[in-house]
Specification:
By secondary structure, the chain is α/β, with parallel strands linked by helices. It folds into 2 domains: 132 residues, STAS domain (Transcription Regulator spoIIAA); 58 residues, Orthogonal Bundle (Arc Repressor Mutant, subunit A). It contains 9 helices and 8 strands. Strands 1-2-3-4-5-6 form a 6-stranded mixed beta sheet, sandwiched between helices. Strands 7-8 form a two-stranded antiparallel sheet. A hairpin with a 4-residue loop joins strand 2 and strand 3. Helix 1 runs parallel beside helix 2 and helix 2 packs across helix 3. The longest helix has 25 residues. The protein is elongated, with a radius of gyration of 24 Å. About 2% of the residues have low confidence.
């Protein structure tokens, strides 16, 4: 049964399996995303589905941190309070950055939902509609990795079983976030002047402003000014937070 249809998305309800399926047609603006999410939440309250599937194939919006928080507050938490969902699945977006931003919503969520990710909609539907199974035996498989050089770049390919896709996508997302975090640290650290970098080294070694002023033959007040600027530029409020940047020196 079609519940909603627009140029942005279509929402269907499969009554036999109590599943709501949302298919994005195009989504490039936060306002369009928010409108569809609000419609979906209305239908969740009306029909109380036990399963939901999001087809993100043509979804091209990179969900900002603020919009991720909005999504958590306007659909994840309300859905959790309804206590209706047994399964949540996604068909992944062709846009890698958009897909990573979708996964981050659940990585940082307190709702407890653990979605599964698929390449094809028929695979997502098959898994979503299957009864919930517990205590399935785990089978450890080692993926086949192929490394090839294309021009001046390295191409890394990994071959995995279809049912393992979800796990490897989750790991890729974690690696991607770690890399982005490292790049963010590096970019912030590069905003420090050479003098500030020098004083930073003394600070993380536990040197006081007076001691640093003696070593560098400058006034303690000048050191304190540099210290404030270092904390401000790196976005830190404590020596513990500052220590995260020690890997860059």
């Amino acid at each position: 049964m079609r519940l909603f249809d627009s140029k942005i998305a279509a929402i269907e309800y499969l009554e036999d399996s109590k599943l709501i399926k949302t298919t994005w047609k195009e989504c490039r603006h936060a306002e369009d995303f928010m409108t569809v999410i609000q419609h979906v939440m209305e239908f969740y309250r009306q029909v109380l589905p036990t399963k939901t599937l999001w087809n993100q194939t043509d979804f091209e919006l990179q969900i900002s941190p603020d919009l991720q928080v909005w999504t958590e507050n306007n659909i994840n938490i309300p859905s959790q309070k309804l206590q209706i969902f047994e399964k949540i699945s996604f068909v992944v977006s062709k846009d890698t950055m958009s897909q990573m931003s979708i996964m981050e919503i659940f990585d940082d969520s307190n709702c407890g939902f653990v979605p599964r990710y698929f390449i094809e909609e028929n695979e997502a539907l098959a898994w979503t509609e299957k009864p919930v199974l517990k205590n399935d035996p785990e089978i450890v498989r080692f993926p086949q990795i192929v490394v090839d050089k294309v021009n001046d770049k390295i191409k890394l390919s990994i071959e995995i079983e279809t049912e393992e896709f979800d796990e490897y996508l989750y790991l890729f997302n974690k690696l991607w976030k770690a890399r982005m975090l490292s790049l963010d640290f590096a970019q912030k650290f590069l905003t420090l002047s050479e003098r500030e970098k020098l004083i930073f080294r003394f600070i993380i070694k536990g040197k006081s402003s007076v001691k640093i002023s003696d070593i560098l033959s400058i006034s303690p007040e000048t050191v304190r000014t540099h210290r404030k600027n270092i904390y401000r530029k790196l976005g830190c409020n404590s020596i513990t937070e500052l220590m995260k940047y020690s890997v860059l020196i």
